[in-house]
Design a protein that fits this description.
This protein is an all-alpha fold. The protein has two domains: about 110 residues; about 140 residues. The chain is about 80% helix and about 0% strand. Helix 2 runs antiparallel to helix 3 and helix 3 packs antiparallel against helix 4. The two termini are about 40 Å apart. About 5% of the residues have low confidence.
């Protein structure tokens, strides 16, 4: 039986990366992104299949009624179904959502498995789960900061153009169209990262066995952050809202995120950072 956590970590990171490409293709049809997402997800399926075959033929065998193995098989089946659906139908959102669930099931299998040893000897397996969770959350925050900066540039340039106040600073800024596009791309990157970070956070809470943590202020506020950015995409993709209003909403979503991050230090029972 393979016990080194680095292999599982690699599968999880490749899985997460494939979902980023699928989400990019969903919000704006992109054949290159879809090919990358499909290729990475296929690689995840190959690794999972190899694990199953090794367990059946070369290892101790899969215990049919084992909860841990059932979670792994469930994740493998979801990957298989999503690849089949992706091959014959264009339902990118279905593929993304199904695999977010599959990603969570795989993470739950990995980090609740006593046979999996952490990559670093001084860690326990929950430390590794938290490391991946924090890494994904931090990456999403970075993307949202970039989106907020571009939205700020958009609002600055919009005001200057409306008031016909020309300056050297304006010449050094991208056009309104480009700043709006860059902010949008940043949100497209940050949102799935936040979804994956939240899914791992829920896995960690499930492993801790303390259901009250589901109602922790930081956890609840994180859902508001997620909904704020989902509504930003809804306005852009469905409502076709103007760039000016989108920039202000992007700023509002960013402020919700900052408020969530700061207040967690005072009200959260397990997200305190000082």
């Amino acid at each position: 039986m393979v016990t080194q956590s680095w292999l599982y970590d690699a599968i999880l990171y490749i899985y997460a990366l494939s979902l980023l490409f699928y989400f990019k293709d969903f919000v704006g049809p992109n054949r290159s992104a879809k090919r990358m997402g499909t290729g990475l997800l296929s690689f995840v399926w190959v690794l999972q299949t190899a694990y199953l075959i090794y367990s059946l033929l070369g290892g101790s065998g899969i215990k049919v009624f084992s909860k841990l193995e059932t979670l792994f098989i469930l994740s493998w089946l979801l990957v298989t179904v999503s690849l089949v659906i992706n091959r014959f139908f264009r339902i990118e959102l279905f593929v993304f959502l199904v695999n977010v669930f599959g990603f969570a099931m795989l993470a739950l299998h990995v980090f609740s498995n006593p046979r999996v040893a952490p990559s670093l000897s001084q860690w326990n397996i929950n430390d590794e789960l938290l490391f991946i969770h924090v890494s994904l959350a931090t990456a999403s925050y970075a993307a949202f900061v970039v989106a907020a900066v571009f939205s700020g540039m958009y609002l600055f340039l919009h005001r200057k153009l409306k008031e016909k106040q020309w300056s050297q600073q304006m010449l050094r800024l991208p056009s309104l169209e480009k700043t709006d596009r860059y902010a949008f791309v940043s949100v497209v990157i940050g949102l799935p990262l936040l979804v994956l970070a939240l899914s791992l956070g829920l896995v960690w809470i499930a492993l801790e066995g303390n259901l009250q943590l589901f109602f922790d202020p930081k956890v609840l506020n994180s859902w508001f952050v997620l909904l704020a950015y989902i509504f930003y995409l809804f306005q852009r993709l469905v409502m076709k809202t103007s760039g000016y209003k989108l920039a202000w909403w992007n700023f509002a979503a960013f402020l919700i995120m900052v408020l969530n991050f700061v207040l967690a230090n005072y009200y959260s029972t397990f997200h305190q950072w000082s």
